[in-house]
Amino acid sequence: MLAKQPEKEFMLRTIALALLVAAAGLPASGARAADVANRPTLTLEGAKSVAAFAIRYAREHQAPGAAIAMVDSGGTLLYVERLDETFQNAANISIGKARTAVLFGKPTRIFEDLVNKGRYAMLALPEIAPFTPLMGGVPIELDGHVIGAIGVSGASSAAQDDEIASAAAAEFAKNQPHRTAQVTVIPRATVEAGFATDTTLLSDADFRVNASHRTGPGEAEVHVNDTDIFYVLKGRAELIVGGTVSDSRAVSSTEIRGSKIEGGEVRSIGRGDVVAIPRGVPHWFKEVSTPFTYYVIKSTHNG
Fold first, then answer.
1. Which end of the chain is more exposed for a tag (fewer CB within 10 A), N or C?
2. What is the per-residue pLDDT across 29-66, written as a single tens digit (0 to 9) for each?
3. Architecture of 44-174 per CATH?
4. Measured distance CA(276)–CA(231) in Å, rounded
5. Is the pTM of this model over 0.85?
């Protein structure tokens, strides 16, 4: 028992490195976590709240009229309201502004400015995608994610359309309980059990932490969106990186696998080593001495 004590202490110390990370919380299930991204989106209740503020703001600032459109993160119309005496087509224009803002993730004033400066080629975009390059569409953001958008049309000017939309989006963001950095600690028993089953210990849209083990060589892999970071706890392995994947096949839209790698570089890794493999780089555990256990932190590129 005394001979194993330093190894146990080493393992406990390494848990802090891999698991004390900022996260929104634990997923309901670790299975197939890489295939699902949880993204916030504006609700009908939220849309009505933003529209109500926009209407109040328009009236308080003597706008002669206004049509307010709200869309969710996918550009689906949630809510539209048109003040009396506002011209009829303002509602349709406000919807177009909102959809442009959310699908491009930018205020529509940017596109109006580009067109006014001579980039007329953008006017062809409506043939392939929703595009209304008129001031008055503003994305609604929360914790760095575009969750919806507001479009305003029919005020006294294009500038006032934009002012109303911007004020409503800012008011919504100000009143939301923003996610703060949280430290998540996974109980030791859960971690130790996880190494036996290759469990995902922690996951959100931007990263994932796995407790992993290998009993022998594996397939060659290429991850389209994930950067892999390994921290080796036990064992040694011969890792091949770069080169070309043989017999390649797509196992998902974000992962390619194959039988081996031709022409890569050999890297020997062992206990205490940290390995960072950028997304898009082929890698293959060619030889493994067992038991081989390691943490895998996957940092996901969502852009």
1. C
2. 444 445 666 778 999 999 999 999 999 999 999 999 99
3. 2-Layer Sandwich (3.30)
4. 9
5. no
